[in-house]
């Protein structure tokens, strides 16, 4: 709906890839709805995934023994996080919906996107004990994981060799998003696009565009162990 | 035992940290046993976590549309992966045991270590369909995930707010190591070292040293859904 803000965090090296198309379709469809859409194109930005001392501008809280979590928390409070993090935090702060678009790498997101999580979702900004899970600091936001897989739907079935796909969603959806208070929409998964016909890949793009049309009517999942492990 | 080779992949910024001590203890204890121990100190190496075109030396297999998985597979076969990857693959190839030592970041490994998985465990080297899971190309090797958490043991209990710690081990142990044919030893977990006494932290170090003394007698876990989700 007009006025809603969406941040797409996108991690693929190739604009012509299916991930690239899925990202473009989301920009197009959500813009058409009157949403304001921002994209963090992590590879194009050469986003830094490593959590280091460089994330703190100026002096450290404790220069004797470097503790990344403590230092970034302190730096957030005194406004001395590095500018690339501040930029990303502003985008998150303004967004009503976060869409993560990526190819599944090793049952998880690519390192460049994991680095976005590690570095952007700083204590004080995204959570601050006891403000975690339902009272996380990013509550009232939504997140959606949209990704492609190498393995087929059969491999990722319950009883399949790679186990129910929901098993691997736990760390990302519950451990990261729910921890920060973000409500999670059902994931959007394109299974094994590299092994299907061009026709099937087109259907995948159409299905995503279709889903986006009614996305704002969706209810979040119940992000508890039952959803993941039955 | 004398002659066994161990690779420790280590991801912490601070040598004085508990992770740093756990790493040093492993080097010391395993060396004392006559093992030959190699450490990949990822932050010290400024290890690159991003999966990009730079990982392929020279021309691409398909320069029209970049596909990281295909390009690194092809590059592996013709010996044109970037030298930092070749170095790590040599270390893996020689090792009988891989130890991953890290602080848990967001229910997973830090991005710098995820990047090591994404970039080093290339198709052709670590797996090559149908050689995955029990017939993965790194079979006859062992792996052990040793990590520290922010949350307490109670939070990571079944029924606890963060769920059974085993839930989050699935992508790392099954999705990565088991996929490559590596057998997995029980994880070594130090819960919430930042919130316990100096005394308790010392006990954690002693417990790790103790475990290492009889590590080679351990049986791998049964890396199937039952172990993780009961």
Automatic annotation (TrEMBL), chains A, B:
Q: Which cofactor does it need?
A: FAD; Zn(2+)
Which Enzyme Commission numbers does its entry carry?
Answer: 1.10.5.1
Q: Which InterPro entries match?
A: Flavodoxin_fold, Flavoprotein-like_sf, NAD(P)H_dehydrogenase_qn
Q: What is this protein called?
A: Ribosyldihydronicotinamide dehydrogenase [quinone]
Pfam families of this UniProt entry? Flavodoxin_2
PANTHER family assigned to the protein according to its UniProt record, in alphabetical order: NAD P H OXIDOREDUCTASE-RELATED, RIBOSYLDIHYDRONICOTINAMIDE DEHYDROGENASE [QUINONE]
| Alphabetized SUPFAM superfamilies for the sequence | Flavoproteins (SSF52218)
Q: What gene does this protein come from?
A: Nqo2
Q: Where is the Flavodoxin-like fold domain?
A: 5-212
A single GO molecular-function term is: dihydronicotinamide riboside quinone reductase activity
Q: Cellular location of this protein?
A: Cytoplasm
Q: What class of enzyme is it?
A: oxidoreductase
């Amino acid at each position: 709906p007009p006025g809603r803000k969406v941040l797409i965090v996108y991690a693929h090296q190739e604009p012509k890839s299916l991930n690239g198309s899925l990202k473009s379709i989301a920009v197009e469809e959500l813009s058409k709805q009157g949403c304001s859409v921002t994209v963090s194109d992590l590879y194009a930005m050469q986003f830094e995934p490593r959590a280091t001392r460089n994330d703190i501008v100026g002096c450290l809280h404790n220069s004797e023994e470097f503790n990344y979590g403590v230092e970034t928390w302190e730096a957030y409070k005194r406004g001395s996080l590095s500018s690339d993090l501040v930029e990303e935090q502003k985008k998150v702060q303004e967004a009503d919906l976060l869409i993560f678009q990526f190819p599944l790498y090793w049952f998880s997101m690519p390192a460049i996107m994991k680095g976005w999580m590690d570095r952007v979702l700083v204590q004080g900004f995204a959570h601050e004990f006891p403000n975690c899970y339902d009272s996380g600091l990013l509550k009232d936001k939504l997140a959606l994981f949209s990704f492609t897989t190498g393995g087929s739907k059969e491999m990722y079935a319950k009883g399949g060799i790679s186990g129910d796909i929901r098993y691997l969603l736990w760390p990302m959806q519950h451990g990261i998003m729910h921890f920060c208070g973000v409500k999670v929409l059902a994931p959007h998964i394109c299974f094994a696009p590299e092994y299907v016909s061009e026709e099937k890949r087109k259907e995948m793009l159409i299905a995503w565009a279709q889903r986006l049309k009614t996305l704002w009517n969706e209810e979040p999942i119940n992000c508890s162990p039952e959803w993941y492990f039955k």
